[in-house]
Amino acid sequence: MTQWQVHTFNQLSTEQLYDAIKLRVDVFVVEQDCPYPDLDGDKNQLDRHPDTLHLLGYQDSTLVAYLRILPKGQNYPDYVSIGRVVTAIDSRGSGLGHELMKQGIKHCLKHYPNQTIKISAQQHLSEFYQHHGFKQVSDMYLEDNIPHIAMLRTTELPSS
């Protein structure tokens, strides 16, 4: 069973922060063979923004799922954003990704009610995000040399 935790950057323990960064690098940099600076650096500070929420999913003591929720104005001027959506390779195919998104949407609704959520989704995952109520609102564009699309979701829960 997955245990979900939500923390701001300052609430993360050193272990939780290390786990999150390691999972993100393992998937986004190593598995997807996409060398890019996962840490936001001095300019954006998205991970460290006081209103950014980090959602961590642990099974036993292993981090198997993660995403971050950015308040309106951080990633997009008019939208709350979910990003860095990732599940551990060994946990895929179990429905964990769907549970991660449900948890992420739930926390968006709780912390940012009546806000539309915007994501930059890898294009091949569009059906996955459509299942969670997201609608494509852009043509394909390259982000870190990977095809992406912009998607929006209103704040009501999907019917499924």
TrEMBL record:
GO molecular function: acyltransferase activity, transferring groups other than amino-acyl groups
Residue ranges annotated for the N-acetyltransferase domain, each copy included: 7-156
Keywords: Transferase
Pfam families, sorted: Acetyltransf_10
The organism's taxonomic lineage, starting at the top: Bacteria, Pseudomonadati, Pseudomonadota, Gammaproteobacteria, Alteromonadales
Keyword Repeat included in the entry's annotation: no
Keyword Glycoprotein among record annotations: no
CDD domains tied to this protein: NAT_SF
Name used for this protein in its record: Protein ElaA
Family, as annotated: Belongs to the UPF0039 (ElaA) family.
